[in-house]
Amino acid sequence: xxxxxxxxxxxxxxxxxxxxxxxxxxxxxxxxxxxxxxxxxxxxxxxxxxxxxxxxxxxxxxxxxxxxxxxxxxxxxxxxxxxxxxxxxxxxxxxxxxxxxxxxxxxxxxxxxxxxxxxxxxxxxxxxxxxxxxxxxxxxxxxxxxxxxxxxxxxxxxxxxxxxxxxxxxxxxxxxxxxxxxxxxxxxxxxxxxxxxxxxxxxxxxxxxxxxxxxxxxxxxxxxxxxxxxxxxxxxxxxxxxxxxxxxxxxxxxxxxxxxxxxxxxxxxxxxxxxxxxxxxxxxxxxxxxxxxxxxxxxxxxxxxxxxxxxxxxxxxxxxxxxxxxxxxxxxxxxxxxxxx
Length: 341
Ligand code: TLP
Fold this sequence. Notes:
The chain is α/β, with parallel strands linked by helices and 341 residues long. It folds into 2 domains: 14-246, Aspartate Aminotransferase, domain 2 (3-Layer(aba) Sandwich), CATH 3.40.640.10; 250-338, Alpha-Beta Complex (Aspartate Aminotransferase, domain 1), CATH 3.90.1150. The chain has 14 helices and 13 strands.
């Protein structure tokens, strides 16, 4: 099977497994796991923050951020198709008593005027908008990269209004590789940043939340509260250290492979790439409801050819490239897409 459902489906490589086996470990609740400490320092250096915290998942990193920045009754503002609103189980309301106000963006991206429109008035009837939430690359937006200029503009204004900013950077690595902009440049515009090792970098488990030393010290409490404080989890952190050392640069191959799939989709009447340009490793496309009635029609036909993609929502399919699929695999998948005609 050529599995293009997500970049989360990768299995650890022999090199990664060897690094996991060799990892020195200790009890991380006592702060004594040397490999977790190494990973946290490495992430903080990469992002240019004072500190970082290892957590089990991207969802937990994001939900700790909500809890850090908001109080019950507050509101966070994000683009309408952000992961935090579509795919985190209503976490802000369930875990932090926070409501989510969504505004429409283009390919998942918000500009400053959209953000300004979404801020609640200072009125006793309204919730307080406390937190502005960006996602880069934007998953549902098609793996789109938000430009540094636009992030800087939103951030400067948000800071002038005393609003907090969080970046869901589950795939920030892809934005860095696609744009050539250093991770630190993006990160400097946010109070907290989450990154995931379990997406394109290919670690089996793990994410991190980064920010100032003070914020991350508070985040440790919430990680414990949310049940995410682990013990000898250095064996997991070792996979993440290995992934940062060995799997970052190769993300550009995933982007080229995604373009191969996108070119094939463009040739099939009844399928439409949305957005039309593919910038990173995610390829989203829509069925027209006529030649292809549902996204499941497409994924079922491809499955017969040994290719897995995700049918998500009523009209959309997602294909996602990663190190578990080669250029040859993607050319085979492209041929199968082309044969749907
Ligand atoms: N995304 C998964 C699914 O949940 C949709 C995927 O297959 O793409 N932020 C972003 C932008 C994400 O795409 C994801 C995972 C997360 C956060 C959550 O990470 P995990 O799965 O580690 O909780």
